[in-house]
Design a protein that fits this description.
Elements (H helix, E strand, L loop, with lengths): L8 H15 L8 E2 L12 H4 L8 E6 L9 E3 L2 E5 L4 E6 L5 E6 L9 E3 L2 E5 L4 E6 L5 E6 L9 E3 L2 E5 L4 E6 L5 E6 L9 E3 L2 E5 L4 E6 L5 E6 L10 E3 L2 E9 L6 E9 L5 E8 L9 E3 L2 E5 L5 E5 L5 E5 L9 E3 L2 E5 L7 E6 L5 E6 L9 E3 L2 E5 L4 E5 L8 E3 L2 E2 L3 E3 L4 E9 L9 E8 L2 E11 L5 E6 L5 E9 L8 E2 L3 E6 L37 H7 L3 E2 L10 E2 L25 H22 L1
Parallel strand pairs: 36-43
Antiparallel strand pairs: 1-7, 2-33, 3-4, 4-5, 5-6, 7-8, 8-9, 9-10, 11-12, 12-13, 13-14, 15-16, 16-17, 17-18, 19-20, 20-21, 21-22, 23-24, 24-25, 25-26, 27-28, 28-29, 29-30, 31-32, 32-33, 34-37, 35-37, 37-40, 38-39, 38-41, 41-42, 41-43, 44-45
Length: 602
């Protein structure tokens, strides 16, 4: 006998609740975040960025006591960031309210790493700190021989951090005890990255070093050229990506270099050269086969990660330091004395999607979590930009099928409606507007619905000549924000003068050619039959009245046949009257004489 287990009503409710919760998308959460997102410094925040793209609306800002060059780490709804005022701050990610702060004895330019409920960060007071992520209480600190400006990487229970005393330290993440240290040389800004048991860090002897993460022993080194390695490397799929520059002593030309190295051997895979664009502390982000990196005076570059070819360049003043990638968009600070902007750039095309102006230079690396960009500025503020409760930003384009048209001639306005990352938006109503007396006015009947590819096409015409401006608009909905295209112009000309149709020349009347007939002459109908001519033949032929027929008809009483081959001879009044007719008269007289002679004999 089969037995059935009875499940309590409370268990059923619990199961239903779990299933329902699984069906509802939750905000992306992470219990760990480090400088440039992870210990490999990929700068790819897509796993925690959430489904909604940030817009350029301020969510909140928190004012610290000084410059904020530190890059935020956002973990479990809390933003952790340092300030030059010497504090490490924990802020509520939703409201910006302070949760706690911890005061060090020096500037905090280092970016926190938050792992397993502990915040690891360096300070100008030469210490590396471990703080409780919930309370801000100090867990431990370790004193190095110099200022700690760089950002720690935490992997497998070890904290790797660089000090201005020229050493790279490996510390026990639980106790803070030193595991090993490696003398790398003088101070550089490069923060160490860790991948597959190897620590990668630059030095002031123009080398990138690869060290065993367990022992600190050198695995390999790569000579970059003639400058300190301040760029922090990124490791993706067994490849190390690094920025540097080389100064030509003779020409004084500085060339920026982006290198791809085999992570195991250090062998160079490719070297992308960017003339007159040195790469100093500018560090790469790598996502979906593309390397994104800023230069000191050349803006932001996208480089093919496979072969080092440049895909696009987004020009901006300043020196974009630390790009961050999330779901098809690159976020980066302008990094210039006169450039206080945070940019959102289309990762595929390099076009600017939006910018937000802070009160100071943005040298902080952005963190993108749940539809919000968190970033610091030298105006002393921590910014949360992008409101996840608003609709997703959209992009609407417009182009005209022809720049000139005629009155009442139809032309079309075509374009696309896309998500800000390029994804098409289907089934959206697009409205055509025309500028009338300085006011944009909807065109009657000028609407169209986008296709599955986000494409629309609206036809219109003008009843008068002139130059007209048009644009298209999208009203938006709960999911997608409204959008307006740029304007396009059409010049409408008057109706063109038709080309005159030439009057055809009259077709000349062709007089039929008179040809001999077996029954006699042919007389054209448009020629009167002269009595004398008719008299010559009436003895043998009876012509149709008024010569209306083309051919004289043979008389029933006569069987005389005229030769059809008789030569033609003109007769006055009758064109080409047959000469044979005269001969026929002579023959008739001769026959009449013969007939009279024979009759007398009889």
């Amino acid at each position: 006998m089969r037995k059935y287990k009875i499940v309590s009503f409370s268990v059923v409710i619990l199961l239903i609740t779990v299933v329902f919760a699984a069906a509802v998308p939750a905000a992306a959460q992470t219990d760990t975040m480090q400088f440039r997102y992870n210990a490999q410094h990929t700068g790819d925040y897509s796993p925690v960025a959430g489904p909604v793209q940030p817009n350029n609306q301020l969510k909140w800002k928190y004012t610290t006591g000084d410059v904020v060059d530190s890059s935020p780490a956002v973990v479990n709804g809390v933003v952790y960031v340092g300030s030059i005022d010497g504090n490490v701050y924990a802020l509520d990610a939703t409201t910006g309210a302070k949760v706690w702060s911890y005061k060090t004895d020096g500037y905090v330019q280092s970016s926190p790493a938050v792992v397993n409920g502990v915040v690891y960060v360096g300070s100008y007071d030469a210490n590396v700190y471990a703080l409780n992520a919930t309370t801000g209480a100090k867990v431990w600190s370790y004193t190095t021989g110099g200022k700690v400006l760089t950002s720690p990487a935490v992997v497998n229970g070890a904290v790797y951090v660089r000090s201005r005393d020229g050493n790279l330290y490996a510390l026990n993440a639980t106790t803070g005890a030193k595991v090993w240290s490696y003398k790398t040389g003088g101070y550089v800004q490069c923060s160490p990255a860790v991948s597959n048991g190897v620590v990668y860090v630059g030095n002031d002897e123009y080398n990138l070093l690869a060290l065993n993460a367990t022992t600190g022993a050198k695995v390999w080194s790569y000579f970059t050229g003639s400058a300190d390695v301040d760029s922090s490397p990124a490791i993706v799929n067994g490849v190390v990506y690094l920025g540097s520059y080389v100064l030509n002593e003779e020409s004084k030309i500085i060339t920026g270099h982006v290198n791809a190295l085999d992570a195991t051997t250090g062998e160079e895979m490719w070297d992308c050269k960017i003339r007159d664009a040195p790469i100093r502390a500018n560090s790469p982000a790598v996502a979906n086969g593309v390397v994104y990196i800023g230069t000191t005076n050349g803006g932001l570059y996208a480089i093919n990660a496979a072969d080092g070819t440049i895909l696009w360049n987004f020009a901006s003043s300043g020196s974009p330091l630390y790009p961050a990638y999330a779901n098809g968009v690159v976020y980066v600070g302008g990094g210039g004395l006169a450039n206080h902007d945070l940019y959102a750039v289309n990762a595929t095309t390099g076009t600017k999607l939006w910018s937000y102006t802070t009160g100071g230079v943005v040298d902080s690396a952005p963190a993108v979590v749940n539809g919000v960009v968190y970033v610091g500025s030298r105006d002393g503020n921590v910014y949360a930009i992008g409101n996840e409760s608003v609709s997703t930003p959209t992009t609407l384009t417009a182009a005209v099928s022809t720049a000139t048209a005629y009155v009442n001639q139809h032309f079309t306005i075509n374009g696309t409606l896309t998500h800000m990352n390029g994804t098409p938006i289907a089934n959206a109503t697009i409205t055509l507007q025309k500028k009338v007396s300085g006011t944009w006015t909807n065109v009657v009947g000028g609407t169209n619905t986008t296709t599955s590819n986000g494409v629309y096409s609206i036809s219109t015409s003008e009843a008068a000549a002139g130059t007209f401006q048009y644009r298209t608009t999208y009203a938006g909905n709960a999911t997608y924000a409204n959008a307006t295209s740029s304007s396009v112009s059409v010049t409408v000309n008057g109706i063109p003068t038709p080309t005159p149709t030439p009057t055809p020349s009259p077709t000349p009347t062709v007089t039929p050619t008179v040809k001999p007939s077996p029954f006699g002459p042919t007389i054209p109908c448009n020629v009167s039959c002269p009595a004398v001519a008719c008299a010559d033949v009436c003895g043998a032929y009876a012509p149709v009245a008024s010569c209306g027929a083309h051919t004289a008809t043979a008389s029933p009483a006569s069987f005389l046949t005229l030769p059809s081959s008789a030569p033609l001879s003109p007769i006055p009044g009758v064109p080409e009257f047959p000469l044979a007719m005269a001969g026929a008269g002579v023959v008739a007289v001769a026959l009449a004489g013969i007939y009279a002679v024979m009759r007398r004999r009889l």
